[in-house]
Amino acid sequence: MAYSGPLIEIDPPNITPWRKGNTGIEYVTSFDSGRPGPHVVLSALTHGNEICGAIALDGMLNDRVRPVRGKLTFLFANVSAYLSFSRSDPAASRYLDEDLNRVWDESVLAGRRTSRELARARALRPVLDTADLLLDIHSMTNESPPMMLTGMEPKHVAFARRLGSPALLVRDEGHASGRRLRDYGRFGDSAAPAVALLIECGQHWAKTSVDVAIETAWRFLAAADVLEESEAKRHLANPAPPQRCVLVTARITIGSEDFRFTRNFVGLDVIPRAGTVIAYDAGKEIRTPYDDCVLIMPTRRLVRGQTAVRLGRFEA
Questions:
Q1: In the chain, which segments carry CATH 3.40.630.10?
Q2: Cα-based distances in Å from 283 to 204, 258, 260
Q3: What class has domain 246-314?
Q4: Share of the chain above pLDDT 70, in %
Q5: Residue 274 CA, distance from chain mean position
C-alpha cells in the first residue's frame, strides 16, 4: 500500500561520518573547551523517524561548532532505527523493538529485559550520567505548533523560559508506559541541578520543523552559556515570542484495541465545555474534565497501553 500521509519535505542526512565519534560510543561526539562550564548534550533521533534533529546536529558538526566554556556532546540516539527509514513507510522507523523514549527507568536499565533499544540506552548512560543540560529534539505526527515539554519541576520551566522559544511550554509528568530520556536520573531529581528539555519541533517531515530544531539548538547553547556571545547573537536573530504554559492534568492511556477519537484532533485543540466526549475506549466515553481543556499531542498510533492524548489547561 502506497504511503498517503503528510508530505515528506526533507531528506534524512547521511550521518555515517559521525559513526566513530570520539567517546568510544558510536555516533556520540564530544568537544571539551578545557574551561569550566556545564556539560551540554544535544540529542537527536530518540525516534528514528524524527529526522529534523539529525539535520540540526549534522549541520552543527559540519560547521565545527565548539564550546568556549564547558563541554558539548552531539548524540544520535536510535541510529539503527533511523537507518531503516523509508519514504514508502516513514513511520515504521520510529523504533525497532520498543520505544527508546520509554526505557529510562533505573529498574528497566539494570534489569534482564533485552532489546536493541535497551542495548543502546545502556551504552549511552556513561555520557548522559555526566550531562548537566540536555536538549532532546523530537517532532510530531500531526501538523501542530512546536512545543517544549518541560516536566513538572520548576528548574526545567525556568530554563525553558531562558531559551525564550517556542511559544508554548507544556508541564507534564510523562507516560504510563515508561520513563522518557528527559526524566532520566538527575534530570528527574528535584534536588539535582541537572536540566533536560524535550522540544517537539512540528510535523515530522516539514521543512519548518528543521528550522525550529536548528533555532532551538542554538538557543539552548546560548542559554547554557557555552558559546561566544557574538556567535550566539548571530544565530538568534529571530525575536522570542511571548510564551504560554499548559499544565497537563491527565493523560489518557489506551485501554483496549477498540479505541477511537470522536474526530480528527490535531493537537492544541481547545474544547470549550467540560464533559465533552472526545473519545471512546471499548465503548466507554472519554470526557473533558473542565472547560477550555487543551488536547496535547493526540496520537494516530492507537496502541493499547500507549498514551492517546494528554489533557491540560493554560496557566497564568
A1: 16-234
A2: 31, 8, 9
A3: mainly beta
A4: 99
A5: 30
Q: What is the pLDDT of residue 297?
A: 86
Superfamily grouping for domain 16-234? Zn peptidases (3.40.630.10)
CATH 2.40.50.630 in the chain, residue ranges: 246-314
Q: What is the dihedral angle through the alpha carbons of 223, 225, 229, 235, rounded to the nearest 10 degrees? A: -40
Contact 134, 38 (CB under 8 A): no
Strands, DSSP E only, in 141-215? 147-149, 168-171, 195-203
Counting Cβ atoms within 10 Å, is residue 257 exposed (0-12), middle (13-18) or buried (19+)?
A: exposed
Measured N-to-C along each axis, helices 207-224 and 154-163 cross at an angle, to the nearest 10 degrees, of: 110
Determine the Cα–Cα distance for residues 14 and 263; give it in Å rounded to an integer.
38
Instruction: Report the side by side order of strands in the sheet with 277-281.
Output: 259-261, 277-281, 284-287
Nearest-angstrom CA–CA distance, 17 and 37: 28
Is the pTM here over 0.85, yes or no?
yes
Nearest alpha carbon to residue 6 among 208, 170, 198, 279: 208
Q: Render pLDDT for 58-105 as a digit per residue (tens, 0 to 9).
A: 999 999 999 999 999 999 999 999 999 999 999 899 999 999 999 999
Q: pLDDT tens digits, residue range 258-307?
A: 999 999 998 889 999 999 999 999 999 999 999 999 999 898 888 898 88
* Summary mean pLDDT of the chain: 93
Among left, alpha and beta (phi > 0; psi -120 to 50; other), residue 37 is: left
Which residue shows C-alpha cell 547521511?
14
d(CA 273, CA 292): 6
